[in-house]
Amino acid sequence: MASMTADLAFVSNYPMAKASCMDLGKRVFGVPVSPRIIWSNRRKLKSFATRAVMQVGSIVEESKKEECLGLDVVTETELREKGFLGLRKTKLVCTVGPACCSYEELEKLALAGMNVARLNMCHNTKIWHQDVIRKIKKLNHEKGFCVSVMIDTEGSQIHVADHGGPSSVKAEDGSIWFFTTEKFEGCRPFTVQASYEGFAEGIKEGDELVVDGGMATFQVIERSGNDLRCKCIDPGLLLPRAKLSFWRNGKLVEKHHELPTLSTKDWSDIEFGISEGVDFIAMSFVRDADAVIHLKNYLFNKNKSIKVLAKIESLESLHNLEEIVEASDGIMVARGDLGVEIPLEQIPTVQEKIIALCRQLNKPVIVASQLLESMIEYPTPTRAEVADVSEAVRQYADALMLSGESAIGCFGEKALCVLRMASTRMELWSREENQQPSFPQRELGVSLPDQIAEQICNSASRMANNLGVDAVFVYTKHGQMASLLSRNRPIPPIFAFTNEESTQMALNLQWGVIPIFFDLSDDMDANMAKTIDLIKAKGMLKEGDAVLIVSDAIPTVYQTLQVKVI
């Protein structure tokens, strides 16, 4: 057996089926081993005082049905139909809008696999958002779903312009348009109202004004104060609330401003989100870590466990990427707005870099914007869109997000089904590829503050893959170990049992984690026995199935892998 950084000892008093244990041993070591393994890591490491449990066992006991298991109805159905390895790992986020805000449409999305419902605070009233949130919570309570709620702040809109009309307006080649900061009601011919007084500062004649990343392009022919007179040189559509960017000699004109990341409206929306018990707040137009830290401290002082996600959608956020990722609870790659500020050909590599960094620093990452854009109008996606979705899954993004496809599209449920099918197929292909002996395995290394917990979960994931266990069970209060296991992207699914509802809803965004609300006790053996028996009682575990067990919920007990800082 290859050398290892930890000592191994074998005992035989764990209540497992002996034949099953011998089979597990053969899978790992190539020879029969005793039924129980204790793996003690005795290295002296600087770390937080982490105590954890890791066990491997076969399911052999009879069921006990008197307890309650908070497994959501969609996972339960999928598990019955496909088994453990058939469960989808990539999470799905849907933006709720006029096309899917009814109770019936929300239920359809939940049944189709929606894990998180996103509400864009740029649109609609607080009363409308409140109604949607309460419908989602009602679905969770009455129908057995587990759908988290995210609100997305508007942010300080410094580069947004509006032509005042209800729909798109065509800009013809050679037409002259006036971009002004003057405030007026309604719409004026060939006039666009900019939202920020200083939007034209530093702009020169000859610069190019690009709308929504290339939907239309204008050349500045005259500047008068804060207003610009422009000629259309690349015709296209001007949508309501279009985003503007300025380019000079092929490079973005970077504009620095003193506006706060969170506007007065954003703080009002955040208070609304707190009062409605949302699970995530996504911050728009984040430039650095300070605003993220400020919001997290604000929520902490209010004793709220809402997770804060930072949206990466500007060149400035890319410059400060690592500090933003470290400060946040997760990241959204807003490719639409980001594509306005960097060359199009850089988007794929930037996306991959962000996903890799988030995984290294153990932060969930959502890939968003234009995944299935054509399905706003058409019932089937383009093949290029499916390839784009599959690439995000191959890069191990935690979640994929629908925007207009679900919010205003005619085929929101179909779009969600496409995401589900494409991600499930790519996960299967990636798993088969990773199991090839010649495939290079990417090592995450040691990079997190709590190195003990990190190493336990790294080792647990390798054990789960090598043993070929059917599932990983983790017992957790705050989700740390479940998140660290997810970071390793193990082959078997991760069932996270927690007695904290906020933890359950937060883990909805973590790759491969099925969060389950369960009344944990201080008796680890009792927790294991009850959860295993309850899942077996539902017909989802059978004799001979193997699970690997990890815990950070309670003090360690006998017959466990233990890591202690002396």
What does this entry look like structurally?
The radius of gyration is 26 Å and the shape is elongated. With 566 residues, it is of the alpha/beta class. 34% of the residues lie in helices and 22% in strands. It contains 17 helices and 25 strands. It has an eight-stranded parallel barrel, surrounded by eight helices. A seven-stranded mixed β-barrel has the order 7-10-9-13-12-11-15. It starts with 6 loop residues before the first strand and ends in a 15-residue tail after the last strand. Helix 14 (451-467) packs across helix 15. Pathway: Carbohydrate degradation; glycolysis; pyruvate from D-glyceraldehyde 3-phosphate: step 5/5. It catalyses: pyruvate + ATP = phosphoenolpyruvate + ADP + H(+). Keywords: ATP-binding, Glycolysis, Kinase, Magnesium, Metal-binding, Nucleotide-binding, Pyruvate, Transferase. One of its GO terms (molecular function) is pyruvate kinase activity.
Query: Which strand order do you get reading across the main beta sheet?
Result: 4-5-6-17-18-19-20-21
How many β-strands, per DSSP?
A: 25
- The portion of residues assigned to helices is 25-40%
As a percent range, the share of strand residues is: 15-25%
**What is the 3D shape?**
elongated
Structural class: alpha/beta
Cα end-to-end separation = 29 Å
Major beta sheet summary: 8 strands, parallel, barrel
Unreliable residue runs: 1-52, 60-66, 557-566
What gyration radius follows from the Cα positions, in whole Å? 26 Å
Separate helix tally? 17
